[in-house]
Write a structure and sequence with these properties.
Blueprint: H1 6-9, H2 17-30, H3 32-35, E1 44-47, H4 53-60, E2 66-70, H5 73-81, E3 86-88, H6 91-100, E4 105-111, H7 119-132, E5 133-144, H8 151-156, H9 167-176, E6 183-185, H10 201-224, E7 236-242
Parallel strand pairs: 1-2, 1-4, 2-3, 4-5
Antiparallel strand pairs: 5-7, 6-7
Length: 245
């Protein structure tokens, strides 16, 4: 079925220079813990790159070999208009790439993509990404967090979402696809502003978020005991894992 995914994408992203730069700053903050272990010379592939926002951010940081692929021709056209090295690649073409050019990539980013893959196909899809990676290569991905207070909204806000994940469910997929146990990192859309900040709207929304997350943490402890201390409560999960050598 042919669909125009840019209809959904446009609710969150636009084509302005300002938005590309704002998103680049967001990615620099969000991905700082994983980028510190990725060389600027690594061959980086952003799978599900959309209009190339992450590719733009990575190349602005010096990752000159970063490129992207996406199955949406409408979004790839926008990326290419900006001169970004992005191409339209569908699922079958991705599997063909994995067969014909195994070990051709050092790092794969899969940001907010896996939930769009039908559950029955997710293992094969991630295995194809493993084939593309060199031994010991890195996969960085984010997915909706099934343990967040708004898990249902995050899953159903997009008609093409098939599921959300707990940290354990995501680890199950990754390890069965040939990756080692993932490391998880904080995923926060908002950042607490620097002082003086008490009159900032971001300060008050951050305070509300911390307050209600704290209450939800107490609820998790009440339901799950000590396990409730470590359950991620953010809207999304961010993970990094390495292909088993």
């Amino acid at each position: 079925m042919d669909i125009d995914y840019s209809i959904q994408y446009d609710k969150w992203h636009d084509d302005t220079d300002r938005h590309y730069e704002e998103t680049a700053r967001f990615y620099r903050r969000l991905l700082a813990p994983v980028l510190s272990e990725i060389s600027v010379g690594d061959r980086v592939l952003d799978v599900g790159c959309g209009t190339g926002l992450l590719v733009h951010a990575l190349r602005s940081l010096g990752y000159t070999a970063a490129r992207g692929i996406d199955l949406s021709p409408q979004q790839i056209q926008r990326a290419q208009r900006r001169g970004l090295p992005c191409a339209t690649v569908g699922p079958e073409e991705l599997f063909q790439m994995a067969k014909e050019t195994p070990g051709s990539v050092d790092v794969v980013f899969l940001m907010d993509v896996l939930e769009h893959i039908p559950v029955a196909s997710q293992l094969d899809f991630v295995r194809a990404l493993s084939e593309l990676l060199v031994p010991g290569g890195t996969l960085v991905l984010s997915v909706p967090n099934a343990s967040s207070a708004f898990a249902s909204r995050q899953q159903h806000i997009d008609w093409t979402h098939h599921c959300s994940f707990t940290e354990h469910g995501l680890e199950f997929v990754l390890r069965n696809a040939g990756f080692a146990s993932p490391s998880f990192f904080p995923y926060e859309f908002a950042q607490t502003p620097a002082p003086p900040y008490i009159h900032s709207a971001a300060f008050w929304t951050g305070l509300l978020r911390r307050t209600f997350r704290g209450l939800r943490r107490l609820e998790a402890i009440g339901e799950f005991g000590r396990q409730g201390l470590t359950i991620p409560l953010s809207l999304n999960l961010l993970a990094r894992c390495r292909k088993a050598s």
